[in-house]
Design a protein that fits this description.
98 residues, mainly alpha, 2 helices, rod-shaped
Length: 98
Amino acid sequence: MAKTEKRPPVRAGFFTKVLLCVLLAALGFQLYHLQGQMEAARAQQQQLAAQVALRQQENDALQESIDHGGSEEEMKKIARDELGLVEPNEKVFYDTSN
């Protein structure tokens, strides 16, 4: 039977330990940086969700207006204000002093 020789344990050298410490520090920095990015993304997500909710409310109000239409008076008012509707025999005066 052959004798098995016991080898001395292999120890990590100084440069190996320094390299390991540098890699761990770099990994820690990256994790810290990513955490900051995640917090910024969450804040942006909340802001965008609030904007979406606001736009949804505006859309719902507009859809309600479309679905139920408006009274004839409301329609005439919009036509006057936005389209310049004039009724027959109606006189319109424009202020040109401005």
